[in-house]
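#help-structures
NK: newbie question, is this the right format to request a structure? protein is DUF1013 domain-containing protein
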Amino acid sequence: MAQQLLMPKATAIWLVDNTALSFDQIAQFCKLHPLEVKAIADGEAAQGIKGLDPIATGQLSRDEIARAEANPNHKLKISEPKVRVPESKRRGPRYTPVSKRQDRPNAILWLVRNHPELKDAQISRLVGTTKSTIEQIRDRTHWNSTNLTPMDPVTLGLCSQIDLDMEVEKASKGRPLPTAAELGATLQPAQETEKLGFSYDRDDEKEKEIDADAVFAKLKSLKSTTPDDDDDDRY
């Protein structure tokens, strides 16, 4: 892919103001029409744009500008970049090595069971499979469904843990929180625990009342015995 010029109009403004290049040379280099370059020179176009130095950005050299100024027929050539930026590849279905393709059904079964919130398109991106295969494993109509064993796709090397976590997070957005029945909660409701606490307090109060009655009974018995002792002392 040919190197593209950054900000052609801003570069043209700088070349008009700082060089003796012809309008045709600047137009050819910046991919503009010569009349547009002339309008820039006359101040009729691109008035609010600040000039961009192509030498500072590494897209032109001073020697190249000098050669073009000396020869009106010379066409400016953009400098080769010092750093090559790789082109972004179009993202498509994930490629799965032949040696690991036999493990894909096991990974799909693991994802279907452990992450039911994932959509078919997400599972397809993770392990590189087709929608029909996912549906067959969901419905247990796959030709080898009896021999499938759920296996973590990260352990199998079909995807990374980061990719799996990202897809699960995307699928979980907007999903309602799980209920207590789904979580399998075994804790008793607060009302029952409050009643239990209240009953314990009542039992303690009953025990205290029983102890008080016993004490009063003992006191009465002591009072009933003291007069007899006094009578014996008189005789």
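mod (FA): yep, format's fine, and the tokens are attached above. The radius of gyration is 44 Å.
NK: thank you!
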